[in-house]
Amino acid sequence: MKFKDNEAIYIQIADLVCENILEGKLPMGEKIPSVRDLAIQLQVNPNTVMRSYDTLQNREIIFNKRGLGFFVSENAQQIIRTGKRQSFLKIRLPELFKEMKLLEISSAELINLYQEYNANLKPNHNEIQ
Amino acid sequence: MKFKDNEAIYIQIADLVCENILEGKLPMGEKIPSVRDLAIQLQVNPNTVMRSYDTLQNREIIFNKRGLGFFVSENAQQIIRTGKRQSFLKIRLPELFKEMKLLEISSAELINLYQEYNANLKPNHNEIQ
Amino acid sequence: MKFKDNEAIYIQIADLVCENILEGKLPMGEKIPSVRDLAIQLQVNPNTVMRSYDTLQNREIIFNKRGLGFFVSENAQQIIRTGKRQSFLKIRLPELFKEMKLLEISSAELINLYQEYNANLKPNHNEIQ
Amino acid sequence: MKFKDNEAIYIQIADLVCENILEGKLPMGEKIPSVRDLAIQLQVNPNTVMRSYDTLQNREIIFNKRGLGFFVSENAQQIIRTGKRQSFLKIRLPELFKEMKLLEISSAELINLYQEYNANLKPNHNEIQ
DNA sequence: GTGGTCTAGACCACC
DNA sequence: GTGGTCTAGACCACA
Fold it and tell me: Most exposed: A36, C16, C102, D84, by fewest CB within 10 Å?
């Protein structure tokens, strides 16, 4: 897997795990890959994966069973969704709308672009084994 | 003025200047504030402002007259618009649409939010003197 | 039974056994549950229970009869009491008092909280069968 | 400075900073030592100090000004106090009282010990320069 | 086997 | 100068 270089790797890994949870590939209560395993799979340092898991644990998306590993917590999906929703509504959208006004893009155009996007959509394969 | 802390300040300052140009507050050929003045106004290190002007100059949005200062170049508006448009269409929108699908936000909702945003819009005070 | 996650499980199990001894639920000479049984009861790896028993045996709180199991030793209560008393007076209390000063909690308040605690006390179900 | 080895160093450093804030040695808005400087002063790796600052920043006790360093945030004292108070009331005290019952220590004895502690108290010198 | 912590050292962007 | 991230490698306690 390749990472974007304009965002910290540990964030991208955390996001990857979140996506897998949202898509049901990692259901509630499921063990997620061990720090070492995921580090090998993603070709990064274990510390980096550890940091991802740390942030996810702080957000109570995953939890730790001593000596066993990390597991998807009960409300993981909900926590991720509400978090994303917050930042989307409070940060992303205002930015977007501000740019739209500056670029004089109408809402009609926006909808067109959205439908175009959906038409071209391809499935992705970032699955954590 | 307060800056977001997830983006480099010099970028935010450059964006601010661009906005002022797009909105016509800084028309073509106009002198923009000196590095020192803007640094004082924004409570920022002059080096940081200088770096903003540097990037704007590289993009040929402003130009320098030695000993006089920086001035808005002829096709500043056009350069900014096409640049913004590019990144908007190629980067921001795909990200946005991806999140919308994840959050199950329909285009109809999007339109509603846009109208809501426009209704609540407050006049903008990020004017460079 | 649920375990705190900021303390090793084998320590919590050892403490649990000690409590049962202090409260007389496991009188002197009594056989304590086999490693396997307690492991099943507590939903824990047998190695973990074994480690608890090991430390208790080292402190001569329990002893082993080969092929029969572990038994509460003669002066188990006394050993536990003096050990606990030591760590309580030398470690816990100083920490506690230091925090009390920081939080500006008076001894009068402390007494109140103690009485409140006693009033709300619920019977204890951490019994080892 | 020497660290206890039963608690992570980065936690002890965070606690140290908190104490300095509570005692007014680091007033609101004040710059705290740079990561590197404190690392040298405490003879630890900069990463370790960084981790301390990270947790403090997450708890909004300190904040970062890009390129300048970390500063004590406005409600730092309050945040620390309420946090400590919570863990004290919800965790430390119940543990304490439970042990008191097991050890058959009365509240009168507790008060005596508290007064004794106050009498022997010595000032401490963990000041961050 | 699992995570958790720490060190040493590097590189980078930013102010 | 500041923080932020990452790697490599080590050691430890725990299950």
Answer: A36
